[in-house]
Amino acid sequence: MDFGYPRPQLQRAQWTCLNGPWRFRYDDEQAFRRPDDIDHWPQQITVPYPPESRASGIADTGFHTVAWYQRDFDLKPGGDRVVLHFGAVDYAARVWVNGRLAATHEGGHTPFSADITDLLDPSGRQVVTLRAEDDPQDLTKPRGKQDWQLEPHSIWYPRTTGIWQTVWFERVPRTYIDKVRWTPRVEGFQIGFEARVRGDQPDDLMVEVQLSHGERLLARDRYQVIDGEVDRYIVLSDPGIDDFRNELLWSPERPTLLEARIRLLRGEQVIDEISSYTALRSVNILRDRFMLNGRPYVLRLVLDQGYWPETLLAAPGDEALKRDVELAKAMGFNGVRKHQKIEDPRYLYWADRLGLLVWEEMPSAYRFTRTAIKRLVREWTEAMDRDYSHPCIIVWVPFNESWGVPELTAVREQRHAVEALYHLTKTLDATRPVIGNDGWESSATDIIGIHDYDANTAHIRQRYGAEIPPEQLFDRRRPGGRVLTLDGYPHRGQPVMLTEFGGIAFEDKSEPGVKKVWGYTKADAAEEFAKLYEDLLHTIIHTALFSGFCYTQFADTYQEANGLLNADRTPKVPLERIRKVTTLSRTWIPGTL
Fold it and tell me: Entry's SUPFAM superfamilies (predicted)?
């Protein structure tokens, strides 16, 4: 059960993983308020697998509102600090160390931590207790694909309660680097570097940053820490001609990472040292094309739900995350749209290192209330903050298919919510495109995403072919029964992408417990499945209107059997056959850029 370093862009040499056996119990009556109230732990759970999963050892998919966790660990207090980290706990968490409150957090997809130095027992025997509250039927929480019905239905899946990402702690110095942030600026061959220092704050602190590519030293700079922060641009020597520039630029075809060593110094004394990485990579929109490193780039994405049969939202381990990246690339895709899930940082690490683009999408709430929007904003900004520095992430998607804002055509407040999240996202990250609402009913957006599951290729050509006037496409044709753009937001020349299509269901290998097969189109044999995929891809790739696409979907997920792979990640047809179709090329029509 190897999960790798949980925070890949700020690594220290020493850390301790707390995954594994924990004491566990449900508290549906909410009878317990503090750890001391509990005198009996009837179950044991394997963290970080949620209790609904088989891998947890619990496998209880019923409705439960509160779950308690507890475990002991050995740690002798010393002269340094100790920080306890939780990768993700769904939904609201309270944490005690040795019976004293250490942290609270709300949001099921984002990390939190606590400095527990002053809570440690001098004996060296420590007890951590966590209470997770997660109302399974509360539709105002960002919950993504977690079903609110007892049994998964349609396109929704089993719920996830409590801990579902790595729990760990690390010793840090009394003064330590708490955060780093990287911002590439290819046009000036610059990399923005930000660092935050926490703990004791003496006056004479410096941060030294060393960037290298292999054996080649690119930069070594020192900056004064002022008010606990450093914020500078590191200017690299620009090689000039593209052949040399491309050696340092990151792309799926050449995922060049720049390794970073960061040291915190007091005078000449090194008091903290971490390793990190970044990349030179730019993404932007130029008229009707997506641009990667200043060049038009066709996005060939696959929709990825990020579920596993035995572990649900949690990954089985680091190797499983790496394998998913490798499989997407093996099928010819250059990116994935992580659907309704903020993925484990280790997945983003492998996407950075192996070269796979990622669209990050906020898990939806399903009611429109002030509480829902406040929760959405808080968790979305935390997710952006966590993942900002990953070069693989190229697009942010706050809303999908008007979920949580179902009356966009009629209710002004809901339109304001989408527009506000779009502009907030652009404010927090000015370097990436943002899709305000993917699928239809677009307003504020950098890309118009269309969801169309019609498997009839003649219909696709009729809707999106070159002979269709743009006003007919956006004002009259309504895939999914929805308008593509809202009044006041006509198409302004942004790229148009088919961001969901396909969904061909073919059950090659039954998953235990699945009672029905669901999909938008069904195939009865492997050859029919492959032929439908080939016909659809050939049509989409040769439709000049589209500057990218996202096929549904990567792998079967519970009752949905519309994956290119089975739920266990075995291919339904040979990977090379899928790759050959996915990577078909087309000649750009003159004047489209």
Answer: (Trans)glycosidases (SSF51445), beta-Galactosidase/glucuronidase domain (SSF49303), Galactose-binding domain-like (SSF49785)
